[in-house]
Amino acid sequence: MGGLAGSLLGARLLVHPGPSQAAGAPTLLVLGDSLSTPQRMPPGRGWVALLQARIEQLGLPHKVVNASLGGEKTAGGRRRLGPLLAQHRPAMVLIELGGNDGLSRVPPAEMADNLRAMVQMSREAGAQPVVLGMQLPRALNPRYREAFAEVFPRVSREQNAALVPFFLEAVTAPEDMPRYFHADGIHPNELAQPAMLDSVWRVIAPLLQGQAQAATR
């Protein structure tokens, strides 16, 4: 976990939640697709469950709510987000959507509009939005793949939102695919989950630390 983990471990004495703080713990909402719901692996082994375990290990006050849905596209996430924000009042929203749009050839402009709306909705509800970038399999149309991949950094720049550049970067090198993916070549297996978490953690760790310190004031 490197220096970020070290700084968070150092902050543990400052933010370790007592009973009253735990009751009002800030919520981290994960809005994703099947990449964020365990696929053919034991419960508790997916990256979202590992995220909650790491947060608890570091003594941070956050609780993780996984609102991911297999097969979800950005349009569906956009429709579901409003009620989820009202229900959970999250301090942070991780938007892990877009992969199914790409596989279904949804126009990049439409996907960008949905992601932009989810970022804005999250911020208006008082949550820090984080966009998890995605890329499509190399076998697909190169022009579409390029347009698709550019959506995530563009929305992040336009909305000044935190970005995980490519959520699966650590597990998609061609020589690593047989080790980290199920036979479908789309869904990462259990071995891939810690690396997926690390990709997200590098971006959200300083944000979580700031929120934890604010919660103790």
TrEMBL record:
One of its GO terms (molecular function) is phosphatidylcholine lysophospholipase activity. SUPFAM superfamilies: SGNH hydrolase. CDD domains: Lysophospholipase_L1_like. Residues 30-190 form the SGNH hydrolase-type esterase domain. PANTHER family: THIOESTERASE 1/PROTEASE 1/LYSOPHOSPHOLIPASE L1, THIOESTERASE 1_PROTEASE 1_LYSOPHOSPHOLIPASE L1. This is Arylesterase. It comes from Aquariibacter lacus.
